[in-house]
Records
---
Amino acid sequence: MTQQTRKGIWAVVAGILVGVVPTLATDALLHKIGVFPPWGQSMTGYESALLLATAYRTVFGILGAYFAARLAPDRPTLHALWLGAIGLAVSIFGAAVTWNGGPAFGPHWYPLALIVLAIPQAWLGGKLREKQLPVGSLKPPPRSETLQAPYFRSVWSGNQPRLSFLTLSTGGNPEYPQSTAATEAHRTANSQLAHGGFSKRGAPPHRNEFHSSNL
């Protein structure tokens, strides 16, 4: 497991904690002060309280998704949507378990509302994080930039150059790793070397430096 993956998992877990812990704490408080009936008793006649519960669950869900996006190493909205997918699965499971559980679990619209809102609130939390990022920071570079301007340093041994160093500019974007571009650049360079495509041009003894424009 890469460090990038570990950071992504931690971002989602942190988002779950930020969303779930205050929700459960608010539930307990509202039961204690009488807004909700005591645990296990009928929720009949508490429709307004269930609307309140839906509202603050949505707010805490957006907050959790925002934190997941903020802590994500890249693609903030995608990490927020992963959180939303987990919330959706939990909501579906909860609805299936409590559907015929009696009046203690409230009317059927309540679990259905939680299912419907799971993904939109996660998406909104991710987008709120994206709005805080610099313009263009989430756009991957064009594919041409990934293959742009490889820089070669060749070490000469007699009349035969040997490729010894290669760097590539990918803009530091994790979406476009260097491996693909490096493979293509090495293939081009090796072809040039095999056919004598390099020549000495004003280099120190036994060393010459080339830019991709020389290929």
---
Amino acid sequence: MYKPLPDSLTLKPSGIHGLGLFTTKEIGEGTNLGMSHLEIEDKIIRTPLGGFINHTKDANCAKVELRMTNGKFNYKKWNLVTLQDIKEGEELTIRDMFLNRWNTGALTIKQSGINGLGLFTERDKSKGTDFGTSHYKIEDTIIRTSLGGFINHSNDPNCVKVELRMTNEKFNYKKWKLIASQDTKEGEELTVRYTFYKV
């Protein structure tokens, strides 16, 4: 089953900004926690891991840049690596060179009755609302953004994923927008019918 975060991490309210990324157990120095950011063309995409990590000058993590090259694609990605031993319950932080923050327009992450953490509205949203890009597909890899990383499956969903094919001289890839398929009330969990993963 897909998990948006490693088992050692969770989201909680942060004293720095909004929601933050916190440890659920001790993590050793030099631990590679996975991909936090991806650059496609000139756009920086935050994964669920990178979408909620906050900035401090005295950071306990760093983004390590990896350049990915093959015959079709040249792109960059960044993995999140710990700079020191981190205690259980401590917030992970980085010196953030990317200024964009997770911003989905009146959505938040909370405990879900469906599975783990879920994506919830903070105010009423009308049918047809575009919440933003939830997924990308590069070659055979599906990448969830911080928006798509926490939306749960339902057989009776209130959102749909709309596929867009993106083409230029360098890249051919797909992305999916998350669109409300019905009016949703404040505090309601957003759901989709999973098509990329087994439920």
